[in-house]
Model the fold of this input.
Amino acid sequence: MKAVKVPLKQLNDVRKILMEEKLMNMDYKIKTEDGFGYIPLNENTDSYEVCDIELEPLKKYPKNFTDLLKGILTEEESEELKTSFDIIGDIVIVEIPENLESKKSEIGEATLRFTKRKSVFMKKSAIHGTTRIRDLELIAGEDNSVTIHKEHGTRLNLNVEEVYFSPRLATERKRVSDSVEDNEKILDMFCGIGPFPVVIAKNNNVDVTAVDINDRAIEYLKNNIKLNKLKGTIRPICSDITKVEFKTKFDRIIMNLPGLAYTFLDLAIDLIDDGGIINYYEFSDSFGQGIERLQNAASKKNKNVEILNTRKVKSSSPGMWHVAIDAKITG
Ligand SMILES: C[S@@+](CC[C@H](N)C(=O)[O-])C[C@H]1O[C@@H](n2cnc3c(N)ncnc32)[C@H](O)[C@@H]1O
Done:
């Protein structure tokens, strides 16, 4: 191939000029030999002495996810997939549209290489049932659904096939944790593996009662209490929240069961202390419905609601949001 032969001392200067002039052939490596450098040239260049010499082609590494799937998916299809990853510890959960399911193995291998994680699972269902888990199918890597996810300095042990967990709520958990004050008595009505309790008790000297109906989630919460150095204490209870007999009221109640939390509002109003805060969540296109539900539940017990804050936590479906409402209950 055509190359320009230059003394080694001038190699760098000449290389820069050739690159600027777009004369250098970027698909080949420069060769150095006996005090000379051989810079590969594009065809049809006559500015320098041109000679024929064997040069080694550069190895091409895929630069990104789209590159990894070149020839298998279109650029748009890869971009769409990239936004549907959830990374939980060393596990990737990916949503593959039905029309691409026949390419799931290739997508799985590319995802594994791109994310450098150990396993890739594909979503096989929506989140369903009382325990809010989803069906998954391994499409690449190790068949191991247990992992440790790191969030805000905590370590959260879980099995993605047995419990609910969303890394997309990390910012919300931090925000709630930052609003907590020392010595609060907190109830997490639907704690799962305990990400709210663990993040909160890691940073605050509080007393958290954490309830979940899923016995596997409570087992992982027990591991997570041991795994993390906590300032506060967490008391795990495996039960339907409506069956727990509480002897105390709470300064804060967390209600992250967005599809059904409203059905437990009467109970939350009974359990909240005067001036306590309910961190309420639901799926909605606005905040109005949740605020009204909180006000209705409170007024039944002659209590008042002051809305402290509202947020869109994440998108749940087109036009719908997982919304957060912080409400102070008095009276
Ligand atoms: C959406 S998940 C949230 C888990 C956790 N708060 C988190 O952010 O990861 C809802 C949890 O509520 C639990 N759950 C559903 N109904 C319940 C009930 N009646 N009593 C207690 N827990 C319940 C489910 O098992 C599930 O773990």
